[in-house]
Amino acid sequence: MKCAYHPEIDAIGTCVNCGKGVCVECKTMLGGKIYCQPCADEVFAKPVKRAEDTSGQGALAVVPSEVKGWNWGAFLLSWIWGLGNNVYIALLSLIPFVGIVMVFLLGAKGSEWAWQNKKWESVEHFKRVQRTWAYWGLGVLLFGVVLWIIYIILIIIVAAAGA
Fold it and tell me: What is the pLDDT of residue 60?
């Protein structure tokens, strides 16, 4: 069975009120029962927080599928990105040898950790901020490459002048 609201995602259960399939993002647990968001709002006559509102709740946060995926900002800026996103485990990237593994781990799991450890206004806000981190990471990388090229050119010039 597929989610009634995300047809590409498998359902993890059905709404006790309407019987529609719901995925992790769409399910609302109330009184130990699964409801879809419209039924939860209707049955309880007040809006209930959806999965996208769970950011900043640590391990209890439901990470939306749109948030999951490779994080270039975390990969390229590692510990700096970690401080800015309350992912303090990123500081392990400062330890020799551990850092090599840690940057790849941050790239792979960084988005999920950032969602869990910091409160975000919405999924769109989260994605916008992470995109900005990625652009800064790319900028720092390109700046480093340009400096490296200038350094190599200067070495060649000095070596040619000394010969």
Answer: 83
